[in-house]
Design goal:
17% of the residues lie in helices and 23% in strands. It is built from six helices and 15 strands. A seven-stranded mixed beta sheet has the order 1-11-12-10-13-14-15, sandwiched between helices. Strands 4-2-9-6-7 form a five-stranded mixed beta sheet. The chain has a three-stranded mixed beta sheet with strand order 5-3-8, with no helix packed on it. The relative contact order is 0.14.
């Protein structure tokens, strides 16, 4: 049994500039024991508390960076000052910044990559990736007692926190990316699967944002098998900025496999795949190595079955499937194809 649900992306945001600051450490205290029968009590000033950290975490339920558009400044708490009676200051609260899977953080001015949240590679803690540590708390005067100075009146201030300006980018992580020219039927196919109701019309660039659908193979949403991304339509020259340009090409690079939709009702049906593949590889040569499937669309229209056969003759080594969203032709078989394709990429470790 297959059913689908849709992850709504009403206000898609795949980039954000934020400013983050770790907390400053608290100051050490100068204090002395003042107790009955202890007239010459020694130093008792405690250390200041450490400042809070800036921590990034991955939240699987997040799909965009829209939350970073509404709040752009994140500051961890400062550590508390030390007190008398050897009491240490309280540590400042960490600031936790949630990000969706597939996010990157870069230095805002230089673009240097700081951390890629699609996998391992940088130190992490159980609570997430600690980007900026808080300043150390200053020492209280208990640390400065010596044989020649029994009553030190010296303490250290806490170290200041650090501030950084970051660019956060999102590259969608999906199992299958739907690729094709405008009006090739990508949004219609996703709508057929998911009831996503993306905007669909007979003019180019109707889809302005990536849409996501999740295939579920059982009776529970916990049984999700694969995520499908509808990438806005490409045109020839997209890798150089034509049309929507490279605005969404980066999202294709994180998909595990690709489904190329070829509109069999268009005159360029025999050249479309070559053009699409050229644009993808011009952007990233590694995209040609991804597992893929060719879909000849709109097989309910005249002459399309003959054209599908011609497509198969031109690309005998490609996996080819003819479908019609309107009539349902080939849709059940396509569902099995996509699950099989996702399974193959998982076995290959892609």
């Amino acid at each position: 049994m297959f059913f689908w649900y849709h992850i709504a992306v009403e206000r898609f945001a795949d980039e954000a500039i934020i400013e983050v600051s770790s907390g400053s450490g608290g100051n050490g205290a100068v204090a002395f024991r003042r107790e009955k029968y202890v007239p010459l009590g020694g130093p008792s000033g405690g250390d200041g508390g450490r400042g809070g950290n800036v921590v990034f975490t991955v939240r699987r339920n997040l799909r965009t960076l829209a939350h970073l558009r509404f709040k752009r400044i994140y500051k961890a708490g400062n550590g508390s000052d030390g007190e008398g009676k050897n009491r240490y200051g309280r540590k400042g609260e960490d600031v936790i910044i949630p990000l969706p899977p597939g996010s990157l953080i870069r230095e805002a001015d230089t673009g240097e990559l700081i951390h890629d949240f699609s996998g391992d590679g940088n130190p992490t803690t159980e609570g997430g990736y600690v980007f900026l540590k808080g300043g150390n708390g200053g020492w209280g005067n208990i640390h400065f007692k010596s044989s020649v100075n029994q009553s030190p009146r010296r303490a250290l201030p806490g170290q200041p926190g650090k501030t950084a300006k970051l660019k956060v980018e999102l590259q969608i992580m999906a199992d299958i990316g739907l690729v094709g020219f405008p009006n090739a039927g990508k949004s219609s196919l996703l709508d057929r699967f998911t009831n996503a109701r993306p905007k669909i019309a007979a003019y180019p660039f109707t889809t302005k944002i990536p849409n996501l659908g999740v295939l579920v193979t059982g009776d529970s949403l916990d049984d999700a098998s694969l995520i499908i991304a509808d990438i806005p339509g490409l045109i020839e020259g997209a890798s150089q900025g034509a049309g929507l340009g490279i605005q969404f090409l980066k999202h294709i690079s994180r998909t595990s496999a690709l489904a190329f939709l070829i509109d069999l009702s268009e005159d360029n049906y025999l050249e479309a795949f070559d053009v699409l593949l050229k644009e993808l590889t011009s952007y990233d040569s590694g995209l040609a190595q991804k597992k893929r499937l060719l879909l000849g669309t709109k097989t309910d229209l005249p002459l399309t079955h003959e054209r599908l056969a011609e497509l198969g003759e031109k690309y005998p080594n490609e996996k080819l499937r003819g479908i019609s969203v309107f009539s349902g032709d080939g849709i059940p078989e396509l569902t099995r194809d996509l699950l099989r394709l996702a399974g193959e990429t998982a076995q290959d470790g892609i």
